[in-house]
Write a structure and sequence with these properties.
The chain folds into two domains: 3-63, no CATH class; 71-240, P-loop containing nucleotide triphosphate hydrolases (Rossmann fold, 3-Layer(aba) Sandwich), CATH 3.40.50.300. It is elongated and about 70 Å long. The protein has a five-stranded parallel sheet with strand order 2-3-4-1-5. It is α/β, with parallel strands linked by helices and 256 residues long. Strand 3, helix 9 (176-189) and strand 4 (194-199) form a beta-alpha-beta unit. The longest helix has 28 residues, at 36-63. It has helices at 3-12, 16-32, 36-63, 84-91, 94-97, 112-125, 135-147, 151-159, 176-189, 213-224, 238-255, and strands spanning 101-105, 130-134, 163-167, 194-199, 227-231.
């Protein structure tokens, strides 16, 4: 069988990794006189990596992140309120493996959303279905799905995600209907999936965001128990610090 036939058959079988690396692996095998077993192992590893990367790209697209932030871009040259060791622990996704929600708290501009998106993208890279929502957009989607008769489909999409991210939770108060929807979703996800929440409001202040104190307590309980909580420092804000740094660089260049 010719190389062209092998490539065509691999393409028909949707072996994208084989197609991409076959010629290179053949050249390497001939040069190093690799045993057939080692040659096949390398090809299979290429196919496995190809599929993992393909899945990650698909999940990232579906997650609808607002930015392309990664953990490697999280600037630790400032005091962020999170140590390098803690950031490393977060990158290992132990909170997810332990089925613990993640609460990222702090003032605006501290990098909470950056961290949430970066963790979401890391989960997608590991093949974990994730959905990102601005909290306001989340409830707008709920309203729109109900109006169009697609509410059950919306809930099904949420249920299929191992992790959902609610960004900027607590910027406004929530109606009784919104609180009920959120409670239903949290109840359904309990011990099945996790929620990452970013908020300028501490959990102790969330109760005042809801009309019904009973539902409020239930929502807070589901978000906090169990959970891991971090306060991301922002005094001055991360954006302000970065802005000052850029201004200093520009000023230095102008003076030269």
């Amino acid at each position: 069988m010719s190389l062209e036939q092998v490539l065509r058959m691999s393409s028909e079988l949707r072996l994208g990794g084989f197609v991409q690396s076959l010629e290179r692996r053949i050249a390497e095998a001939e040069s190093a006189q690799l045993p057939i077993g080692d040659f096949m192992r390398l090809l299979l590893e290429d196919e496995k990596l190809y599929r993992k990367e393909h899945t990650a790209r698909r999940l990232i697209t579906r997650a609808r992140f607002r930015h392309n932030y990664d953990l490697e871009d999280f600037d630790m040259s400032f005091d962020r309120g999170i140590s390098r060791g803690q950031l490393k622990e977060l990158s290992l996704l132990s909170f997810l493996h332990n089925m613990e929600n993640l609460l990222l708290l702090g003032k605006t501009g501290g990098g909470k959303s950056h961290l949430a998106v970066a963790l979401g993208r890391r989960m997608c890279a590991e093949g974990i279905a994730t959905s990102f929502f601005s909290s306001n957009i989340f409830f707008e989607e709920v309203t729109a799905s109900k109006a169009s008769g697609n509410y059950l489909s919306f809930l099904k999409r949420i249920a299929q995600c191992k992790a959902i991210i609610l960004d900027d939770f607590g910027l406004r108060s929530y109606t009784h209907e919104e609180a009920t929807v959120l409670m239903d979703i949290l109840e359904e996800r309990y011990r099945k999936g996790i929620v990452i929440v970013t908020s300028q409001v501490k959990p102790s202040g969330w109760k005042g965001l809801f009309e019904d104190p009973v539902i409020a307590e239930a929502i807070i309980d589901r978000l906090k128990n169990p959970s891991t909580e971090f306060v991301v420092l922002a005094e001055p804000s991360y954006r302000e610090r970065v802005g000052r740094k850029k201004e200093k660089v520009v000023k230095t260049k102008q003076e030269q």
